[in-house]
Amino acid sequence: MRELLVDFITSLDGYASAEGWPGWWGLEGPEYLAWLGEQPEVTYLMGSNTYRLMSGFAAGETPAGTDGFTTDEEASVDGLTQASKVVFSSSLEEPLTWANTTLVRDPAVEVVRAMKEDGSGLLSTIGSISLCRSLLRAGLVDRFRVVMFPVITGATGAERIYDGYPDVALEMTDSRTFDGRSQLVEYRPSVLEHPPLHPSA
């Protein structure tokens, strides 16, 4: 069975991006970039908002509030362009302009459940906060990985990641520090129906 990874890059206070900040908050270092280059072949899953944003970058649009891409950001976008991608949307129309992308209109939870049971290789989300939340609620997520960058973006942060999430117990399976500043934590998630009982109860 294929594994499903929910993969987030966040500020310390749990934002997915921040207005006026560059990609990776400008703090990507050589260890982190080398680790990104070592990732296995993956099929990326996303919603329509992430597709519009990322396909725009692939077409040459620059992030709002910035003058352009760094060399590392360009390489990251190029890598995503080459990868297999699935976008779940009822609003996008074919043909899609971003190479190697398949449009799916059926419910994401049902489709991802079938994808996990049929085929090989890793499935991973990219961005798409509401999609990730739906897949987690459905119990489909095998690994939950977060790389936290050492910034707090309380004034400029956008896209609070964990709002609307259920309660989730997390069993740590991996951790690592990149470049002496960015922290990776990886967990096996278990969605809770209610908070755990106190041991003395």
TrEMBL record:
Coiled-coil blocks: none
Pfam families in the cross-refs: RibD_C
Biological process, per Gene Ontology: riboflavin biosynthetic process
Domain Bacterial bifunctional deaminase-reductase C-terminal: residue ranges: 4-180
InterPro entries assigned to the protein according to its UniProt record, in alphabetical order: DHFR-like_dom_sf, RibDG_C
Gene Ontology MF: a single term: 5-amino-6-(5-phosphoribosylamino)uracil reductase activity
Protein name per Swiss-Prot or TrEMBL: Bacterial bifunctional deaminase-reductase C-terminal domain-containing protein
Gene source species: uncultured Acidimicrobiales bacterium
